[in-house]
Amino acid sequence: MKKFLALVLCLMILPAAQGGEIALKVENPWIFSPPPVSKETAAFMTLINTGATPLRVTGAETPAAGRVVPMITTKTEGRTGMKDVPFFEIPAGGKLVLKPGGDHLMIYDLKGTLTDGEKVSFTLLVEPGGKLEIEIPASRSAPK
Ligand SMILES: [Cu+2]
Q: Which CATH architecture has domain 22-139?
């Protein structure tokens, strides 16, 4: 009986420890493939929270670049600008669309050029939950 209980406990704890239970779904991700001279670009995607509690995306890690941070597009007196934010919050059961001219994951210090169709490995930093690994294709325009 004791053994059985220990097994049940382990099964309950395992998914959380592996970080495999993040209630976040990513749809239509893409990275703008910039001209070769540019060291900056951005990643876009739809973030869907399938869970019952809010989730935050605080940034991402990728071998392709030095730094990835959440950024919003601002408009003051007709002027468009961009601003770093500490995180994007996706409400329980809700979604957030990252798109050109809106919220995006800003990519700094690109280590090389991105060619169209190239898959970039990307690790989203999610709170709570941990890390969500995805692959994002580089493209000149949003996927249809
Ligand atoms: Cu930006």
A: Sandwich (2.60)
